[in-house]
Amino acid sequence: MQLLQYATSFMAISQLLFMALFYLAYYRRQLLGRLMAFYALCLMSYIASTIPEIDTGPRVFEFPFNMLAITAPALLWIITRYLFVDNPKIEKPIWAIIVLYIGLRAYGNLTGPHTGVAYLVLYESTQLIMLIFACHVVYTAVRGLGSDLVEPRRRFRVPFAITMGSIVAIIVGSGFFSLQDTWMTSVYIGSIFLFILFFNLATFRLHGDSMQLIDPVVEQSVPSLKSRMSEKDKDKPLVDRIHRVMESERLYAQPGLTIGMLASKVSMQEYRLRRLINQKLHYRNFNQYLNQYRIAEAARRLQEPGEAQVAISTIALDVGYASLSSFNKAFKELHGVTPTTFRSRATH
């Protein structure tokens, strides 16, 4: 039975090694490629720490392996943010939480074993934090599926969410109980091997389609709603039709408007509409595209003297936002100031 545990462990490590080498070979110049390779190393360290000879070996090997494994959930969360969130910004409190839980776990590993309150703080609480990070990885990957306009990234979301979220959740969840039996450990590591194998196959397939698998997030100017295409561009009439429908019917002001609904309005296949907005107008996300229309109308109304007495919340709802907070956030991203400040400057 111990032979089965060795076999599953080495199969999982081999797939993770392939994953690390793949990203270093094709995406080493991109930060996300290097982070994915490092994440694979973290998972390899975790699986290696379950091998009896290492688990009962010198502490000089055990501690670094444990710390790499503990870092995996936070590292995956950071990768997910940079991969699926356009212009991501990780707030300082999040960094503080990451440093805190890794620091607590490191202290616990160095000074353990612990019982009582110390065990609750140093182990159980950190396990819970890691589990929350893992769950949020899945949420982030799935949440933007419908509005993502970058086709390679959109196709990558589901395999990423299923495999990476599940792997980290399994690893973190195992920390709440002890795997004593060899066969249980073998099944546990074997499931990780299958998830990594599935992920590698999905990754290789997308890469084999000559697509840019990891679409780097770069700071760039805000795209323009008006197409700069040549009159000879065969897609220009289609893009003009999209603009015409959006503006004449004020579709952007419809709360909950999806790209599928817009595709139906302009009598176009959804995949083609995604490609046009992404490749011709240079928007990475459908919500970003809608925000341009919504904020443009809101800014115009905030500058009009006749609208001076209209509440900002009313304008936000009129242009399609479900809440004032989401309107304020979108407005500040485009204009650099809040709607209140923008109105104040425009009327003085």
Description:
By secondary structure, the protein is mainly α. It folds into 2 domains: 2-208, Up-down Bundle (Rhopdopsin 7-helix transmembrane proteins), CATH 1.20.1070; 236-346, Arc Repressor Mutant, subunit A (Orthogonal Bundle), CATH 1.10.10. Helices cover 72% and strands 0% of the residues. The chain has 15 helices and no strands. It has helices at 2-27, 31-49, 52-55, 59-84, 92-111, 116-143, 151-174, 182-208, 236-248, 259-265, 270-279, 286-303, 312-318, 324-335, 339-346. α5 packs across α6 and α12 (286-303) packs across α14 (324-335). It is globular, with a radius of gyration of 25 Å. The N and C termini lie far apart (79 Å).
Brief description of this entry?
With 348 residues, the chain is mostly helical.
